[in-house]
Amino acid sequence: MALQNGKKPVSNLSSALASIHISRDSQNNGDPALYNDYNQHNIPHYDHSINQQQYSDYGPPQNQLNIPVDRIAEYRNNPPTEGISLFSHRSAPNGFKVAVVLAELGIKFRTFFLDFKKNEQRSPYYISMNPNARVPAIIDHDNGDHAVWESGAILIYLCQRSARENPLYSDDFIEQSSINSWLFYQASGHAPMIGQALHFRYFHPEMIPSAVERYTSEVRRIYAVVEMRLAEIREQMIMEMDDERFSLGTSALSESRYFDDPIWLVGNRITVADLCFVTWNHVVDRIGINLKVEYPEVYKWTAHMLSRPQVIRALSGLESN
């Protein structure tokens, strides 16, 4: 999809979440400068003026008689002949997580944004490929229209699909297990806890402070685990690559020339172990967590990922690379 009027693409994920009303107190809990800093790397801004039709051009429009059209049925009856179809939602970090990996792997894909207000996720045609009736799901048109659902399973499938050409995974059994550990940690803990914190802050019919506190505290615990791992990797890198004053403890690590260099959870390169976190990190300020202040290594790690061209592209909602 071409950009219109020469404007930079907006973050489709951020735009959808930006429509959530945040009270003055909630705003003060976050750091308004957090994503201003990220935006030095041209990360898409929150944008309330997004044109929904621009990101939803699968299937025919509603006809003039207002007879409902099953867009998914139309799509399934006339699917693409190649690439991957990603079924997602405009405010679903898990859907954009898959888009990030698709873009990074250079796999041709298009995104079908479901309309939850019309219960499209409960279409019999959608449930036939995803019995959980949630997003994301994919159909691989290069492999007999094979369907995969659940974000973690999709990421592993995409990595295995790319095999030896895949820079984001590993053909080493031991390294695979390390990558998978972080992948499952993110899918089973990080994402659900942020999701619950968002729910009880903005969508639950009544305010339950204990629920907000419980889930926000759990998100902080999860980030502390990641922060510790990244800090250990940072220290090891400085000890190995910088001069001996750091190993002797006569200089603070923050003075090292490697203090802001990118570091990754597994090995010396970015993998899906890192990328699976990025879309949720991109919205965690919505629950009052300030990554820059509270988890500085997580913040730097996230900033490096958000500066990658394919990550920017995936967050913009562009349907194909």
Automatic annotation (TrEMBL):
Residues 82-166 form the GST N-terminal domain. This is Protein URE2. Plays an important role in the cellular response to the nitrogen source. It comes from Geotrichum candidum (Oospora lactis). PROSITE patterns: GST_CTER (PS50405), GST_NTER (PS50404). GO terms for biological process: intracellular protein localization; nitrate assimilation; regulation of nitrogen utilization. Keywords: Nitrate assimilation. Residues 172-321 form the GST C-terminal domain. One of its GO terms (molecular function) is transcription corepressor activity. Pfam families: GST_C, GST_N. Belongs to the GST superfamily. Homodimer.
